[in-house]
Amino acid sequence: MGTSKLQLIVALLLTLTFSTWVSASGGEEDKIPDIPVKFAISTLKVEDNYYLALNYENFPHWHTYWKNPGDAGLPLKFDFQIDNKKESLTELEWPTPKKYIEEGDMLAFGYEKQYSIFFKLPKNFSNSTFKIDSNWLVCKHICIPGKAHVEGSFNDFKVNLSTPASFEVSEDQLKERFEKLPRENSNAPHLDLVLAKDGKEDNKLVLYYNLSSLENKEIDIAKNILTPFPHEPFNFIREKVFKDKKGNYYAKYNIEWDGEYMEPEIPLPKDGKFKTPYELRFLFANPTSGQTEIIKHSFHSFSLTASENFNKFTELLTPVETNLRNNLKDSSPTTLDTTKASANESIFFYLLLAFVGGLILNFMPCVLPVISIKLFGLIQHRSESKSRILKHNLSYTLGILTTFVMLTVAIIALKSAGEQVGWGFQLQSPVFVLAMIVVLFVFALNLFGLFEFRTPGGSKLGGLETNESFFGDFSSGVLATILSTPCSAPFLGTALTFAFTSSNFTILAIFLFVGLGLAFPFLITGFFPATISFLPKPGMWMENLKKFLGLTLLLTIIWLIDVFSSLTDHMAGVMIKLNTALLLCFFAFYLAKKITKSKLWIAVFHILYIALFANILMTPKSDISNKSQSALLQEKNAKGLQWEKWSEDKMKQYAGEGKKVFIDFTAKWCFTCKVNERLVIETSAFKKLVDEKNVQLLLADWTKRDEVIGSWLKKNGYVGVPAYFVINSKGELIDLGETISISEISESLN
């Protein structure tokens, strides 16, 4: 690849991201409010029953989400403790949600302004104490996780709060909201529903329905005709509406069948007959009554042929989709146009954080071995022409940006499949970690001179000229990216949280800016070669330095082996195979270099270690699993402190008992976690603080992929580890961020 082509590719990537950056001009309306959502509670008596109302007030133009959030988002959540016991209250239907078009043409269902969720109170709660928690995700141009905690007591069902309410809702307002709650309608005579197999794709269904005999009544195009309640394994995509010349409406929902991802797996029946019927619930915007009602429909089977006929029929009809989008754009303050403009204006801040965070990654311990090898290459190149130095560094940059694009694609695919993913997710895969061990081990052997191979950086590494090939520089960028992702640098966490809760394009833009920050020092030296004049001149000393760099890779491999052992629950058989394979790998190259030139013997030893690696890869999933997280817990307990396995129930239990708690979200592969452990958690000062304040210690081990931990982190504004929290004596959860100090922990526990 010529220099001009490399320059063109990198220039295009720089132009794409920079144009997004400079187009930003954040306005007053895009400032994040201090309190995006206010939360209060009250009670309401209706006839002889009492109801608890959870009242929310969103900041203007910000919205939270319904039970089915749509294409993205998270529904409201609630937890109740009555007389210090966890209770499940009977929930009434939620208010009818509004429909929003968010950035990237994402459809969402949720709430603006003030609204209330009602729960029926049992008679024996008339004089009881309560603790109520609520969590939400609130969005406008960005999305922010939020939570609230209130406590007090009921006195004849009257609410007495321990702290003043953030806002008041009158009894008349509550009654009005209560009366408007959607009610069930067992008879919807104008609505016919047909479930059919998608004729084009496997594991896809389509729900068809029509409204006829409306007597010239129009549907409300700002609402869906049907809005589905969530029901596994049905994943409803988006309603499409059509209209004929007689005023009849026809609609369909594309449905993804998620049964193949469930445990146990539920395959889509090939004969169209379900083993047990599925009862699906919908909000129905009834044009006859003008009300939003709840309807149910039981599906015992689905048609194998109706899809093709209906699709041909809809080609003759007028789609209502375009009018729907225009209506939303004209009428809603959180429309597609406004949201996109707001996101473009505010994204500047997060792109800047991503760039600075990527720049700081160059100095993090996880990526230093590869950065050192790249610096070694700069020394090798300093005598070359400016164009060749630029070409080397553009190759390195292209390797970084290409890898970040691949990570973006993987994250989008996993998110689409319903997986909880975060920063450094690839190191939760034992197969990926094993591949990294093998690659880095081979590179280390090359640096020790055991064979000739084009490696990252350097024009004569391993005795082979690489002046004409820039694969090594590209590979160096790939490795730097992969090894940097377990690290969480300052500024990076905020940018990544914004990215993981935004559109796919935003994830790509944020990741590219992290990559540009990581590559920035080498871009500078590429365009301005004089900046490397401070580096020493090439000489014989570089042979010794090369072996030292090989040692740094071996240290990295030791760390990865430790990570791999945690992912495999320290399985003796797997670890013996791994260590034996690495030993045979070393001997195969040593044999060829120092002992014999016989191709037969060299091939035998290469086949032996390759076969062992293949055998490890073919180990059943049940053997390389993550059902137990005791390994890291045992290591931490062996260092003199009593840690317990984290769970949300354990947190709530200790909070309810008024105990002080320190919570550590960590992982074996997280270098920043290790630094915090050495500087703070494993110090005598921390142990003294734990003893003096009688602090309970909870450990959340995210070494392996854990949906519960991932979901809780995302709900609380994190997409990776480390993350630290404390629960003080008042039962309040306090976020300490990604870096901690003894004084900060001590003050938060008070």
Automatic annotation (TrEMBL):
GO cellular component: plasma membrane
Segments crossing the lipid bilayer: 347-373, 394-413, 433-453, 474-499, 505-528, 548-568, 574-592, 599-618
Residue ranges occupied by any Thioredoxin domain in the UniProt entry: 622-750
Pfam families attached to this UniProt entry: DsbD_N, DsbD_TM, Thioredoxin_7
Location of the protein in the cell: Cell membrane
A GO biological-process term: cell redox homeostasis
UniProt keyword Transmembrane present: yes
Protein name: Thiol:disulfide interchange protein
Organism: Halobacteriovorax marinus (strain ATCC BAA-682 / DSM 15412 / SJ) (Bacteriovorax marinus)
